[in-house]
Amino acid sequence: MTSSGVSTAAAISPDSGEHWAAEGAWRVADGVWRIPLPLPMDGLKAVNVYVIETEEGITLVDGGWAIPVARELLERCLRDIGFGFTDLRRFLVTHVHRDHFTLATVLGHEFGAEVSLGIEEKPAIDLLHDAAHLTESPFVAVLRTAGALEVADQWVRMDGEHELPDAAIWAPPDVWLQGDQSIAVGTRTLDAVHTPGHTPGHYVFAEQDAGLLFAGDHVLPTITPSIGFTVPPDDLPLGRFLASLRRVTELPDLTLLPAHGPVAPSSHARAHELLAFHEARLSASLAAVAEGGSTADEVARRIGWTRHERDYAELDVFSQGMAAMETKAHLELLVVRGQATARDGDGGIVFAPVVG
Predict the structure, then answer these.
(1) Has residue 317 been placed in a domain?
(2) Where is the secretion signal located (predicted)?
């Protein structure tokens, strides 16, 4: 869901002067480079991997998706700035999603580079390694509780067309990050800050001396990170996400280095925009419940999606599922705030406004 006046598809990044996903190694600061890697068949187009130079070699923030085209481009771009895979010393992975973690773990284990990931991502890694015992995608159960029964059935059919996860690209990290901590990267110090919400174990890395925030998917400049799209399901993901955004505003105002989209000048400005967006979304969701929406799916059908405020029926089935799960996250937070109630129903969890 976009919440910025700038379209991701048209966004120019100041470091390159080109579209943010343009191929290349783009210098964002002294000793720091941004390399966009491709995401085939993904509307986001690319994921930004950040290279930090040190006297001992290079540290990468995120690694990309473990597919040949991404690996080949990363190798070529590193060569252009004087490095190779043998110079890899560490991966600081912001979260467990495949476009951030899988190439990091493959290259890390192949070339002896240390891979770090938040400890709260371990249940997801464990679930992927136990996928052979699953009778269906765990997202399907979430969709059913959201009342998106038709979408859930279509996800079951889509899931049947895919192979089981490749355990080799989901190997556990070498280091599990726990709590906030400072990490030495050569002569630099990066503050690893736990920012759950998009995923339970998401981290951002702040280099305060250089004025940089490696933000992963927590703070994106032109779109809002998905909320509620995690398995096993996280407890109150939107509440955790909003609290994590407020944590970003407690740090100094830093240059935003996002995983998707262009480099942006102010982490504070974007965090405040995202906070305001979700408050407006909460109000719209509550109004939709009052108008007769009862399940998350029914509420999702009453509010607009994407920056163009598209109708739910216009979305593809995958996006409809994402919309239903995100709406469920908003409604659950309204319940915690005492503005709505929830009860189990035959077609999913039923929400109602608190009257009086």
Answers:
(1) no
(2) none
Interhelix angle 138-145/317-336, nearest 10 degrees: 60
In a domain, 355, yes or no: no
- Which tokens in the block code for residue 239? 């509440």
* In a domain? residue 174: yes
Closest-CA residue to 283 (of 350, 333, 227): 333
What is the residue type of 114? E
* Token pair listed for 354: 């608190």
Q: Show Cβ contacts of residue 345 under 8 Å, excluding neighbours closer than 6 positions.
A: 147, 294, 295
Report the 10 Å Cβ neighbour count for 51: 23
d(CA 153, CA 5): 35
Quote the domain boundaries for residue 212.
8-135+162-275
Instruction: Please tell me the total count of domains within the chain.
Output: 1
Q: What is the per-residue pLDDT across 236-273, written as a single tens digit (0 to 9) for each?
A: 999 999 999 999 999 999 999 999 999 999 999 999 99
The answer to whether residue 301 is domain-embedded is no
How far apart (Å, rounded) are the C-alpha atoms in residues 252 and 76?
35
Q: Are 215 and 258 in contact (CB under 8 A)?
A: yes
CATH number at residue 232: 3.60.15.10
| Residue in the structure block whose two tokens are 């690319």 | 46
pTM metric for this prediction: 0.94
* Amino acid symbol at 177: L
SS3 of 253, please?
coil
